[in-house]
Write a structure and sequence with these properties.
This protein is α/β, with parallel strands linked by helices. The chain contains five helices and six strands. The chain has a single domain, classed as Rhodanese-like domain (Oxidized Rhodanese, domain 1), CATH 3.40.250. Strands 1-2-6-5-3-4 form a six-stranded mixed β-sheet. It is globular.
């Protein structure tokens, strides 16, 4: 009985441990959905050109001009397949859009082209702003 309760406790605690560590959920499409706080922690590290990641904004140029995350590279999801070589294979790729739908599509596209370090920011820039994180115009 003790062994059974221990197993149940571990099963219940596993999602909580992942959330506390900032890890996300792996999708069947080959990318990970991560919380905005996880992406923000990496973003705070500074200059993305010197960091082991790229922040990819897949919204429209008009949306980007209204406000974006500092250091983000704009490649709208509609042209991502054509510009896929602009996304480095050797860096972690954090992808965001307005709310998470287009970035999930972009994440799936990148995974289909052999990218393995893809993290889709759940909730997009809406979640980023709701968390009080800065944007620039």
């Amino acid at each position: 009985m003790k062994r059974f309760l221990l197993v149940v406790a571990i099963i219940i605690a596993m999602p909580l441990v992942g959330a506390a560590c900032g890890s996300g959920e792996q999708t069947a499409d080959g990318y990970e959905n991560v919380r905005v706080a996880h992406a923000y922690e990496h973003w705070q590290q500074g200059d993305q050109s010197k960091s082991p990641f790229i922040l990819l904004d897949v919204r429209t140029p008009e949306e980007y001009a209204e406000g974006h995350i500092k250091g983000a590279t704009l490649i709208p999801v509609q042209v991502l397949a054509e510009r896929i070589n602009a996304v480095p294979h050797d860096k972690q790729v954090y992808i965001y859009c307005h709310s998470g739908t287009r970035s999930a599509r972009a994440s799936k596209l990148l995974a289909g082209h052999g990218y393995t370090n893809i993290e889709n920011i759940k909730g997009g820039i809406v979640a980023w702003k709701q968390a009080g994180y800065p944007v620039e115009k």
